[in-house]
Amino acid sequence: MRIGLLTEGGYPYVSGEPGLWCDRLVRGLEQHKFDVYALTRSERQEAEGWVPLPPQVDRVRIASLWDAEDDGVVYGRRTRRRFAECYGELAASLCATAPLKAFGVAETAAPRAEATGTHDHFAHEADRFANALYGLAELARHEGGLHRALRSETAVRALERACRAPGAHRAAREARVPDLLTVAARLERALRPLSLDWYEDDGLGAVDLCHAASGGTAALPGLLARHFCEVPLLVTEYGVRLRAHYLTEPDASPPVRFLLAAFHGRLAAETYRSAALITPGNTHARRWQERCGAERAKLRTVHPGMDAAPFAEAGESPECADPHTLVWVGRVEPAKDLVSLLHAFAEIRRAEPKARLRIVGGPSGSEGAAYLAHCRNLAAQLFPDEADGPHAVGSNPVSFEETGGPELPSRAEAYASGALVVLSSVVEGFPAGLVEAMFCGRATVSTDVGAVVEAIGGTGLVVPPRNPRALAEACVALLRDPERRARLGAAARARALELFTVEQNITAFHNIYLDILSRTPARRVVLDDTGEPLPFSVPAEAHVPGRWTDAKVRAVARGGPAWATDTPVRATVRSSETDGSPGSGGPGGSGASESATGGGRAAVPASVVEVAGAAVPASVVEGALTVVPVSAVEGAGAASGSVAEESRATASVSATEGIR
Amino acid sequence: MSGLGELGPDRGPVRTEEVGTQVPSAARRVAADPVKALMHRHRDLCERAVDPLEIVAGLEAHGITDRTAARFRHRDVFSLAEEMYARVPRDADTPPRPTGRPTPRVQTAWVVLAVLPGALCAAAVAALRLTDGRPRLVAATAGTLAVALALRALLRRGPLSATARTSATWTCWLVGYALLGDGLLRAALTGGPDDLPDGTADGPWPVTVAPVLALALACAPAAASAHFFAVRARRKLAASRGLADFSAAVRPLLTGTFVLFIGAVTALVALTGAVLREPAAYPQALTLGALLLLARMLTVHGHTHAPALVITAAATAEAAAVATLFAARLPGCDFLALPVEALVAAWGPAGVPTAACGTGALVLLVHATRRLTKASAHAEPEHPR
Fold it and tell me: What is the DSSP letter of A99?
């Protein structure tokens, strides 16, 4: 399967936030081909270079969002009129009254009398936006010159007309000439993906699935690929772009903010409407997406995967923890509310005088440094230094440390040193530190912010934020009950290993790819030199996961229990089975199953290739087809298998361990 | 689908039992209208929000979750934010507009640069006048080079700088024609030229230095008027409410700027003519100056196509005029010289550049009054990276 991975300001480059995740995804799904289509945000980013790319990345196409080159096309009268129409529609759909109300409609407004009318109205507005967007895209595709046109007087005038139209939103009506110019320039920037030459048959038209690594601008090429080439789109959002837009645009004037927010809101709605599936990274993102019009049936939460390996040692040895030590790990900043933690610790000390608190982490930024100094002062005031005896040197029960030194080489050691991990934030996104503590098998007490409850499930204590007493009570309860601590820690580790590992992330995406492809296979007609459709040019096997042109590859993807494929395999290649008895029948994990595949199943894909290349008898293709549904449907299981008969014992092993 | 099971409403995370402790403080805190207190705490956010989702984003950044929203008797933060957005008092009068962008300061760097071509050109002309023979050749070459470099520097920064690339060749040709063209034309009509130009006004191929010096000196007023126009237009941009208002306000500004510049060039031509004791070549210098200024201003504001076209056309016309005179010397081609001869007979040798540059300047003036009065011409250039 060929995946078009769409990124913005991220993946193939070293910097950028979705980089690590995309890298793990691409490396994890080595049985697929990846074409990376990257939009870059700055010259600095481009100068930083790429991460090393694995061989399954076939090609990388880069377009810069910061440096649009003018192709010199000046529109004639008719084209200009067409552009003005499309742009005017776009602007009008942005200026319409209360556009964001529409997003709540799907769930809330049903019982009202006027609800259906409102709904129609908003559906109409959404259609208007989509039509205008695709109209502009078609214009850019056929005529070019969109960059210049979007900054031209025609565009500004269309914007003005839309803002002054009756029924325009109050904020839009106040727009003045500088606001209009700013909005036009920003829209031009946001619409630059429209002018790219990616939407041809040798570009995004050739992929089976577009996977946008974030919403917003990165999903725009996916939208157009779906529009022009019928390629299904998968959108993954770990942070909702629309929300980020609201938070990063504080200074602009109200009309600019309104129009840009309307644009991003409508773009998000259109993205969610067109996407085959949407994978939010957590419930918070999911709620925003539902709010912006995503259908619930399309949403599949895929938790971010984190590398569990560094924490395995700490997780397997819960006994090495000091039973009186509480640990806080993170970047020190005001949002972490360490003051509250220190006050809570004062109460804990009253109940448990032997308790100690380790605060591990450096400050983030100058604000964080000031906050850290403040916390140190507070700790020194609250807790006097203590010594074991009259002749020993004392120390403070609260210690501020940083990882990287000889005592604490890494965060895993920090978590391992404590019996209890505490999180006291008042603001939090997805709590990566908490998940690390879960990997370490430590009981946790955390505040109820962000995605904490979602991450912790029932495997730790959750208290309200800014409530030192509740925090203290929870901590004391756990400090006094080592058995409960152990129970919660083990449950937390099990939960984290089930939900937050890289492997589950990759498996989930693998299954989602198969899911999308089974429902919306890209139908492509390949023409030969004379313009006639070429029969069998895209055989059914093209959709089989795995590199079906490669003779050494598994015909069934990771996953797929061995018995599921046994019968068709024997039916088609009985001859090769005799010499295909692999020597490595023992429980060797994925390596063993790989070699078993190489020996026992080599003939299947090879014969299919020959047949498909020659495009002769339909029967063999039919025969191969019996394999296809099995792999596509049953292959969506969780294990890695595809093993010949006698290594069925291996299958159970690889089901548990050999996920990678 | 692995994560889906956990996603429903909280599956009951183990919460601590502090119900008893919360009740009194909650009773103390929760007044009759809890949302009002919340709105007061986040009043900046509420007042500047353009839609409810902006309030949601702001509230979430302050740590308010669905659990917090439940205390305000709302299902989630979204409905809480909707109430807050709906309850924000909105006055009928528009909020005070922020004052426009600060006007760019006049930097001494480009003021110096704007004067530099004129100064260098004056020095070169003085050197031409004071030297003879080989030193004069050296002075002419060095002077030309220095003026060209100074011009290049001027066009790189300050109000005359443009991001787009422009073709300097045809502009150089126009200036070169102003320097040598009239003399060449006159000599060609009388069967010359018999010799290469020697840098004097009375040689076999006379050189007219005065208009060129005037144009070099006019770089300063050109930069000043471009700066003036840009600054005033930006101020008008911030002040005007609609695009039509803006166009109406900028049109007289453009005309005024143009007239000011023409006045300055006229004065400079008169001055150089008097100092150099050459006949003041008003028509050629004025039309050429107008053409170059308009072309540059259009280029600065992003319209590169028309200026390049018009300058090329004017230069080609001048070149063609000279070429026809020489081509007419071929046997049987007498008729080629007729139009130019007629023109020269009516207007003198100055007629050729005046007609070419004047037509071009007129076209560009019309174009500029249409393009430079549009708001899109005054958009801030983006500074990415």
Answer: G
Q: Thinking of the domain A309-500, which architecture would CATH place it in? A: 3-Layer(aba) Sandwich (3.40)
Angle ∠(B158,B163,B166) on CA atoms, nearest 5:
100
pLDDT score at A580: 38
B261-300 pLDDT tens trace = 999 999 999 998 888 887 777 888 899 999 999 999 998 8
Asked if pLDDT for residue B359 goes beyond 50, the answer is yes
CA A68 to chain centre: 28
User: Is residue A595 pLDDT above 70, yes or no?
Assistant: no
Tell me if B65 and A100 make a contact (CB, 8 A cut-off): no
What distance, in Å, lies between the first and last C-alpha atoms of chain B? 40
* Residue B54 with chain A: CB contacts under 8 Å: 246, 257, 261
Global ipTM = 0.80
The fraction of chain B above a pLDDT of 70, given in percent, is 83
Whether A24 contacts A57, CB under 8 Å: no
* CATH no. of A2-70+196-298: 3.40.50.2000
Give CATH 3.40.50.2000 domain extents, chain A: 2-70+196-298, 309-500
Q: Is B311 or A597 the better-scoring residue by pLDDT? A: B311
Residue A317 gets the label, from left (phi > 0), alpha (psi -120 to 50) or beta, of: beta
Mutating which of A174, A266, A453 best tests the B interface, going by the most B Cβ atoms within 10 A?
A453
pLDDT at B283: 85
Average pLDDT over residues B246-254: 91
Residues ≥6 apart with Cβ < 8 Å to A344:
A424, A468, A469, A471, A472, A475
Of the residues B46, B56, B65, the best mutation for testing chain A's interface (the one with the most A CB atoms within 10 Å of its CB) is B65
pLDDT at B91: 66
At B29, list the tokens: 């805190």
More confidently predicted of B89 and A630: B89
Residue A639, SS3? Answer: coil
Cβ B243–A156 below 8 Å, yes or no? yes
Cα distances (angstroms) measured from residue B103 to each of A40, A41, B92, B108, B234: 32, 29, 31, 15, 8
Q: How far is B375 from B72, CA to CA, in rounded Å? A: 47
Residue A148 CB coordination number (10 Å): 18
Q: How confident is the model at residue A589 (pLDDT cuts 50, 70, 90)?
A: very low
Check if B26 contacts A (Cβ < 8 Å).
no
Whole-angstrom Cα distance, residue A336 to residue A338?
A: 6
Q: Are residues B379 and A283, on separate chains, in Cβ contact within 8 Å?
A: no
Q: CA angle at residue A453 from A447 to A458, to 5 degrees?
A: 110
A176 contacts B3? CB cut-off 8 A: no
pTM of the model: 0.76
Contact yes or no for A42 and B385 at CB 8 A: yes
CA pair distance A634, B145, nearest whole angstrom = 79
The pLDDT of B16-43, averaged and rounded, is 63
Out of A99, A176, A247, name the one closest to residue B61 (CB): A247
What is the C-alpha separation between A32 and B379, in angstroms, rounded? 46
CB atoms within 10 A of CB B188: 23
Distance between CA atoms of residues A16 and A38, nearest Å? 12
Closest CA–CA distance from residue A102 to any residue of chain B (Å)? 12
Cβ-Cβ contacts under 8 Å, B243 against chain A: 153, 156-157, 160, 177, 180
Specify which of A31-45, A313-327, A493-507 reaches the highest per-range mean pLDDT. Answer: A493-507
Q: Nearest C-alpha of chain A: how many angstroms from B278?
A: 45
Whether B383 has its CB under 8 Å from any CB of chain A: the answer is no
**Contact between chains at A257 and B50 (C-beta distance less than 8 A):** yes
Mutate to test the interface with B, among A177, A238, A420 (most CBs of B within 10 A): A177
